[in-house]
Amino acid sequence: IHFATEGGHVDTLEALLKHPKINPNLQVEGRTALHIAVENTDLTCARLLLERGASANIPDSEGRTALQLATTTNQWDMVALIVQKCTQFLSLDEYEANGDQTLREVIQQTRPELALPSIPEDTEEVLLQDLKNYLSVNDEENFMKNIILLRKEFPHEMVEELLKIAAERGFHKAAIGILKKFEGRQFSVKKAAQAAVEQSDHVILQALLKVEPNAANDLILSACLELGLPGTRGADYTPDRLKCLELILEKENVNVRCSDNEGNTPLHYAASGGCQEAVTLFLNRGSYIGHMNKFNVPPIADISAHTLSRYFDDCLQCLQTRRDRANEYAIEFNYRCLMPHDDFPERNNAYRATREMEVFKYIAGNGSLKHLLKHPLLSSFLYLKWHRIRHVLYANFAFYMIFYLVLNAYILSKTYDTQIENRTQIDNDTTDRPLASTLRIVWCQNNSLRTFTTVMLLLFILREVVQFVSCIRSYLTSLRNWLEVALITLTIALLCGAGVQVGAVVILLSAWELVILISQHSRLSTGIEMFRTVSFNYMRFLVPYLFLILAFALAFYTLFKDGNNTKFPDPGLSLFKTVIMLTGEFDASNIPFISHFIWSHIVFMLFVFFIAIVLFNLLNGLAVSDTAEILSKAELVGLISRIRLITYIEHVAVGEPFRHCSCCNSRLTRWNPFGFLAKRILMFPYFLRDGKISVKPCDSLDAYDNDRYYEKYVRSESIKRDKQWITLKMDPDIIKQAKRIIYNKNQLTDNE
Questions:
Q1: 25, 133, 215, 501: least buried by Cβ within 10 Å?
Q2: What number does CATH give the domain 527-654?
Q3: CA-to-CA distance for 270 and 249, rounded, in angstroms?
Q4: 1-120: CATH architecture
Q5: What pTM did the predictor assign?
Q6: Cβ(336)–Cβ(383) under 8 Å?
Q7: H-type helices in 317-375, by residue range?
Q8: What are the residue boundaries of the Ion transport domain, all occurrences included (predicted)?
Q9: Over the range 25-57, which residues count as b (16 or more CB within 10 Å of their CB) and which as e?
Q10: Where are the domains of the chain?
Q11: Span 257-278, pLDDT tens digits
């Protein structure tokens, strides 16, 4: 700006002054650019400099200000321009124009029409305003020269504003100088700290947090937001932003689980910003990976599987339980990352609104993350939850088994009674009287079964109604529940006198429900999943070929239709016969090839080749492929099945069926008929005290062949003891995997 002003390059000077970091008061050899403009009598350059905030009060190397220089050289147009455009309070009484007159006196005598500012009553206020102007125009040097002149106390708002400007401009000396000048006085640094975070200035932020450490809680979300913003002009501010974040997290009682109006946590922003270092910082501080924002997106949606896997490994630690015995240790599982946010204190009559299985449900549905379910940290958590509610599942299975047996016995007895009644009508005239007593015995047995079936059905209906009111949404979105509703409806129709056709459907539906209950056991879920997957893929694969099968059925009807033929008498039965022929039941000896000898043989051979051989083998190959794929993922399939089961039970246990009922009081809106399950199925805070649990195996760390359950080896200090928790069992396979991970970590550490 000095060269541009000296050469009179107005356009160049204007372009330079538009830069946000430019300092119009920059001094070179004791002169500012405004001094040069006055010396050159360049009103245009002087106007540009004054409009940008140039000060006319700064003395040059000879002690002359720009205004003093203009006055002594009789540049009255320049003097008028400075008086009108200068943003600072002009120093008219401190400097002399000639030997015995001040600048004010000379200007008033020579140009009385100029409106000069009055003599200030409080010079400290003027100085404070000048300090603000110096910061605004990036003049840190003159700010530091003048701040030492302050003597009186000022309102904290003014100090906070100076700090904020210094932080926005990145003036380290100015910010530290302000803090030292006003040390011990009451003012807030939150606005300045916010500006420092936005500028990624960790030096100023560190100085501010020393003054007010509690400001860190208000900065954590802003610091994470900055991680995802691109740097200006291609600059990479990530290291500086990470340093700011580390400074914030170093302070005590920083809440890493806070959220903004959209429900986003710091971990959300760190993950969406793609900063894996920040993600690791928050995970190590106990951030919850499953917190859903308003758009139902958890933080793990943007966290790589590799980062999560490494962190899960770090959540498994080996703790030595006794110093005098090196081979006695415990494996600690740290579940802090799975602990939902707790926005209210623990109470016995209210249940957590946030469900613990939502994060598992998301992982199971994410193709790039679902393999992490096999990690010991996640699989052990699922095992503990299942172990807590297994008795409820066993009781439910026993109840339905009784209902299934009674219902099928009733249907079979009803079918048997119908046969006896028909036989009675035929033999009524020839049969002797003992048959009547037999009928009475059968009728009494049937009546007892009917009564027992009715009682079990009422209990079944009661169970479904309670489930429905506990969690309406989950109930209506479950296909299994609609199957149960259909079963109840048809059973009622059967008890009201429906025919054997309804009984046959009820037998099938009740058996399918029993299969679903059996599949809830993780060891049996793989087989059921294979059956379901193969059935679905069969139907999906067969759909494009339905028209071809229909075409062959109509062709058979056309070629083989004969008055004496009973194989293909009409299109409907022809289609039915063709579908049966898919399985290889051709019965070719009974097919009449006489009417159209050549064409009937050709069509039949085409059917055998394309449908019976090609299509049927394609379907078999598809089934083998699906089966092999599911078997290769048997462990994962079992875990996903367990997640679905526990998620549904958790929804029922923590639901509030009367939450939307305006006519109910507050206690009733929180009431849940299945609320007793909440303390059993929820791990936090009812069971785990600090999100950790310690399991104490009895063998060495490098042994993996222990196949027994680890029972009663939970360290008592890691859990909350209550009447509902007496012993703990842990799957031996999970312990083996955990020990293997810890062993590999130790080996890697030794190698490093």
A1: 501
A2: 1.10.287
A3: 13
A4: Alpha Horseshoe (1.25)
A5: 0.77
A6: no
A7: 358-364
A8: 397-633
A9: bbbeeebbbbbbbbbeebeebbbbbbebbbbbb
A10: 1-120, 396-426+433-523, 527-654
A11: 999 999 999 999 999 988 999 9
